[in-house]
Design goal:
Blueprint (H helix, E strand, L loop, with lengths): L1 H25 L13 E4 L9 E9 L3 E13 L2 E5 L8 E4 L8 E2 L2 H6 L19 H13 L3 H14 L6 H11 L3 H14 L4 H13 L3 H14 L3 H18 L2 H14 L5 H11 L4
Antiparallel strand pairs: 1-2, 1-6, 2-3, 3-4, 3-5
Helix pairs in contact: 3-4, 3-5, 4-5, 5-6, 5-7, 6-7, 7-8, 7-9, 8-9, 9-10, 9-11
Protein name: Tetratricopeptide repeat protein
Keywords: Repeat, Signal, TPR repeat
């Protein structure tokens, strides 16, 4: 009786594993953001009216950004992946990926093998040349920041910062990533050193003011924003810094200071712009 039970359990395990292995070949999970699928073969979701999935390779073009190199299409038929070869001779088709691109399904080793794909395309090393240079690392971080993947931006940016901290654009990208992630105390020393090295870069003041606000250092934020506003010749940027201070004093219920910065915001913001509307909202909800 016990022996029969063991055999039955073993059979169930084997059947379960066989079923899993079959499903694994055709299972697609469209739950990965494209920036989490760098240097991977992926498939994009199909429309309900389509019968095939577009697939290819995602990589970073250091100049152009996140890129999908379209290979061709495949369809799922009788638990198999059927490669649909294209008759086109136009060569590579590349798509630049924007932040709103659909999540992808990263292909498994079995799926890659079934589609007769190499581990990586033979052309990929061309896009990796100079990948340890500061200029390459800074640009890589920029691309991650641009799509909101600031956590992923930190690795290349910090690597570059250790090599050449004052490289053009690097300090801003690193501070931007930290601010976006709410790591204001990490951003502050980077920006303070950046200003000490280059006191004429307006963007350093804008980011530092934001960092100070995030750290509840209101006095330091106000001083920094005043310097930034004085240096900038861009009314939109001035209105952004002004509305940030207005919001800070709205939260503190400091009416005198709020009125001062609200007036500044309106002087720089276009009529009916979102920043002007924020001031209206703060005033209408002052006692709430």
């Amino acid at each position: 009786m016990k022996q029969t039970l063991k055999i039955t359990i073993l059979s169930l395990i084997l059947i379960s594993n066989i079923g899993f292995s079959q499903n694994n070949l055709t299972e697609l999970k469209f739950d990965t953001k494209f920036y989490d699928a760098i240097d991977k073969w992926v498939a994009f979701p199909k429309k309900d009216t389509d019968s095939t999935y577009a697939y290819g390779f995602i990589y970073i073009d250091n100049q152009a950004g996140f890129t999908f190199n379209y290979e061709t299409n495949f369809q799922i038929k009788e638990q198999e992946l059927i490669n649909i070869k294209s008759d086109s001779n136009i060569g590579f088709i590349k798509y630049r990926l924007e932040p709103n691109a659909s999540p992808v399904s990263v292909l498994t080793e079995k799926q890659i093998s079934a589609l007769k794909l190499p581990k990586e395309p033979e052309w990929l090393p061309l896009y990796k040349e100079g990948s340890n240079k500061v200029s390459y690392l800074k640009q890589e971080g920029y691309h991650y920041n641009h799509v909101g993947a600031c956590e992923l931006a930190l690795k290349p940016l910090l690597k570059a910062y250790k090599i050449e901290p004052h490289f053009k654009g690097l300090e801003f990208e690193l501070a931007y990533a930290y601010n976006h992630l709410g790591k204001f105390e990490e951003a502050i020393p980077i920006l303070e050193k950046a200003i000490k090295n280059n006191s004429k870069n307006f963007y350093f003041y804008r980011e530092l003011g934001y960092s100070y606000l995030g750290s509840n250092k209101i006095v330091e934020a106000e001083k920094t924003y005043r310097k930034g506003i004085k240096m900038s010749d861009n009314n939109f940027e001035k209105s952004e810094m002004s509305v940030n201070m207005s919001q800070a004093y709205f939260k503190l219920k400091n009416k005198k200071k709020f009125d001062e910065w609200a007036k500044l915001t309106r002087s720089y913001a276009k009529e009916n712009s979102k920043y002007a509307q924020y001031i209206d909202y703060f005033e209408q909800n002052w006692d709430k």
